[in-house]
Please model this.
Amino acid sequence: MALTASLDLGLNALGNLESATVRKLGFYLGRLTGTYGGALTTMTVPMGQAYFVSIPPASTYAFQYNAASTWFAIMVQGASASNSNLATSPTSVDLASFTCYWNGTVTTGLPFFALGWN
Model:
């Protein structure tokens, strides 16, 4: 089965950095720390209105953020690519247990990238 990628006209109508900043679109690179306490935990991104948040997978976990509802979820990834869905969310995960590189320094937490309006 083939995948199709399409442009988001809201972000790509004028596809350059200058036009995005003129429309006051902000970029935020951060890291998540704290303890995840179960499915659909609220997460606040330190910007006015987050439009898109990307959190790369780490260890055996996949991460999801819904910008409209501000819900954050962690899911345990399935054992094989043939799984049609991910396993249920763990009940507790210490995000400081993950290691990432931050400005060339090893630190704790999950890196994320966000787009939105300040």
Summary: Residues 23-77+98-118 form one domain. The helical segments are 9-12, 17-22. The radius of gyration is 16 Å. The first helix runs from residue 9 to 12.
